[in-house]
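Page 42, continued from yesterday. The earlier attempt failed because a stray header line got pasted into the input along with the sequence. Redoing it now with the clean sequence only.
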Amino acid sequence: MGMTLDKILNVECSTYDFKESVEKKKTKSWLKSISAFANTKGGSLFFGVDDSGDIIGLECAQADAEFISQEIKAHLDPIPDFELTPHKSENKVVLEVKVSEGRQTPYYYYLDGNRSAFIRIGNESVQAAQHQLLTLVLKGTNSTFDAQKTSAKRSDNSFTILANTFSGRVGQPFDEKMLESMGIVTSDGFLTQAGVLFSDNCNAYNSKLVGTRWAGLTKTDAINDHEYQGNLLLLLRAGVDFVNSNTNSGWVKLPDGRKNLPDYAERAVLEAIVNHLIHRDYTIIGGEVHIDIFDDRIEFNSPGGMFDGTLIQNRDISKVPSVRRNPILADVFTHLEYIEKRGSGLRKICDLSARLDGYKEELHPEFTSEANVFYTTIKNVNYPHKDGKWVVKVGSSNAKVGSSTDKVDNSYPENHHPVDIYGTSKRLSRKVLSENIMQFCSEWRTPDDISVYTGKDLRYIKEKFLSSLVKSGLLERLYPDTPQSPEAEISVKTVMTSSENTQ
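This time it went through. Structure tokens are written below.
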């Protein structure tokens, strides 16, 4: 019995091209696919199948196989690993050229002294641009851009921001030796590209963030805009502050207090900015991270599409593996406890947004990518508004909905002094801090959220406050059976809303 095309494509083949015949006078038309497969994630080229997926078959499959093999060896450098396999279907022969992902990138197609490297973008094989070619060269040497040694000397640079951020968030002193173990400083005392991006006096031209608050739903009139340049941790803080200062929060007055109703999940915004700082392509000249705030959404975009050449809109984000363009940057942010090691950033943005009051399925965050750009869109759960009142879910018929013009700072209570970039804040009494935590936890929060909110290190918050508040019944865990599971996102919520019950 012959194999159907569906069965053929089921043979561990996720990326493929079809060719109706072996074009012997236009070999570049299919050799570029071989180059692209080898330079990206591998794939299969099927001869004897038309563009619509109908099996045409080859008349002389054996001769065609020999010609294909010769052309690959004659015009690709280095020669990629490939297999030629015939498939029979209803007396028709389809020839599969299965190409493995290469380790000696870039794999060039060359003819008459000219050579070009191709990559896969979605279902197309396209010629690699200069920055993409640089990435292939680095991949072929088992290296990445952020690991490249620079001429900047350790002795001429300081890392106070990094050290103090680490101490504030992790609760441990920063050891100078960590600079080398993190990949920030080389063994002979020079900064890597990652080191430059985390140095106090970072002046890298490509370390930049641009924030714009637009009037309405389109890019017509800008209400506020700002450009930031420098250290990645400062960019992160600047991005979060820009969003906080250019978005609103509705609120609902309940019989026993008031419940804040933010437009966006604060942690989801933080996660989005971190993702775009970590995963952007720093080899693209003139590129920067953009935050565009509209009435109904926030759009984040950064240079560089998916690192593996796929399109995120064609992928299931719950199954996207962690393929890191800048592994050192990712590891540093992991050490700082901003992210987890697993590629769960996109899922977290979705999960955190879904917890907000006013969230509906149509407000699900969106992720799209192109060859040279990645987009994240987070929807405003309080939009649209009517007659100056935010449209929100309320739990009582007597609830009062706050006006959008009644500017309420739900980020910090009146007696709280926000943490600065160095992880320090003014001292609060244990009672006041407990009350602030209780107020903040009127909706599900992670311990990390609470740490950022209070300006206290994560370990201190867990040991001195959360454990006792949970034990006393004032807070509850979202996943009580798995309190230590990262996937469970150890979260808490107030059981008693009145501050009178706080010890």
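Notes: The chain has a mean pLDDT of 82.
Reminder to self: strip header lines before submitting.
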